[in-house]
Design brief:
It comes from Proteobacteria bacterium 228. The chain has 14 helices and nine strands. By secondary structure, the chain is α/β, with parallel strands linked by helices. It has three domains: 39 residues, no CATH class; 74 residues, Arc Repressor Mutant, subunit A, CATH 1.10.10.10; 164 residues, Glucose-6-phosphate isomerase like protein, domain 1 (Rossmann fold).
């Protein structure tokens, strides 16, 4: 008997059971059981994976990609013939599109897409309306930010983070570079790492970055932060850093000019709300990833750092007003 497999799930043949047939006769009806494996999604950011893979696809396959990216919720309910018709391609082209994404076939791809969309149902990118109340846009902003953080968490490569942490923990000096909103992330990072006894600074001026780049050496690290990965001044400064021999770590979208210059590239890929002028989610994601790096460096330093942090905390008490009030309860 032949069995079909769906995304590595498999059919198991159970012993035949007897069942009543017409006119009281008995017949043997084979029963089949499905065993589903509880495993993580093959592509937790499938839509991003499609967008990044699209340039390497044939033109006909790109038509399928365009339709799926534009109408993902409709695609999961389509037969292969329906998707081919909507994308104006042949059915074999749809199969080639799926295999270009490393899926066994259309059903395998469709199941994964459905799982991804289901996991992101509560965190879809928000769109603000003029009629939104404070309660409504408060909810939209929080839900979108939480969802984006989950997507970033699931897409981060542990090996890449490990490399970045090792480089920063062993560095003679660590510099954080960024412009605009990324400058605020750089300043926050410098504050965190300074507490960890890491010689660090934050630079958001292209002239200062150029001067600093000319003083760096192989024992130094520059972490460049960008929401777009395409800032001209930052690209110019990082090219100088590469000439100095220092290690370049980037915190920016993948497949961008800045990421291409990195020795260690940490990809932060988010679909921002086009109606907003500020890239809120990217900034928050950058801050959280910086926390991950800081904790990693702190763990490398061990117990001696804990004593140092306690000393700092005691020293800062004199700068605060001793006015502890009970928390009000509703």
């Amino acid at each position: 008997m032949a069995y079909a497999c769906l995304q590595s799930d498999y059919w198991t043949d159970n012993p035949p059971t007897s069942a009543p047939c017409a006119r009281g006769a008995l017949c043997i009806i084979p029963t089949l059981g499905i065993t589903a494996r509880n495993r993580p999604l093959q592509h937790p950011n499938l839509l991003k994976h499609i967008a990044e893979s699209k340039p390497q696809m044939r033109k006909s396959e790109q038509k399928v990609a365009d339709y799926v990216l534009a109408q993902p919720h409709e695609a999961i309910h389509m037969r292969i013939v329906d998707l081919a018709a909507q994308a104006k391609v042949s059915e074999p082209t749809v199969v080639r599109f799926c295999r270009a994404l490393n899926f066994d076939g259309f059903q395998d791809f469709k199941l994964c897409l459905a799982q991804v969309l289901a996991s992101n149902t509560n965190f879809e990118q928000f769109s603000l309306n003029n009629s939104d109340t404070v309660k409504e846009f408060k909810h939209k902003i929080f839900e979108s930010t939480v969802g984006n953080l989950i997507n970033v968490r699931d897409s981060l490569d542990p090996d890449t983070l490990e490399q970045a942490i090792d480089a920063m923990a062993q560095a003679r000096r660590v510099e954080f570079w960024g412009f605009g909103a990324s400058a605020a992330v750089a300043a926050d990072a410098q504050h965190k790492f300074y507490r960890l006894m890491v010689s660090s600074t934050a630079l958001s001026d292209p002239h200062m970055q150029t001067i600093s780049a000319l003083t760096l050496g192989e024992q130094d690290v520059v972490l460049a932060i960008s929401q777009t990965g395409r800032t001209k001044d930052l690209l110019h400064s990082i090219r100088l850093v590469r000439d100095s021999g220092a290690t370049v770590i980037t915190l920016c979208p993948g497949n961008t000019p800045l990421a291409d210059l990195a020795d260690i590239a940490i990809h932060i890929d988010l679909a921002e709300d086009k109606d907003l002028n500020t890239l809120m989610s990217s900034r928050v994601a950058h801050l959280v990833v910086m926390d991950v790096l800081a904790v990693g460096v702190a763990m490398r330093h061990g117990p001696t750092l804990i004593d140092h942090l306690k000393t700092i905390r005691r020293g800062l008490r004199s700068l605060r007003v001793n006015d502890r009030r009970p928390i009000k309860k509703d």
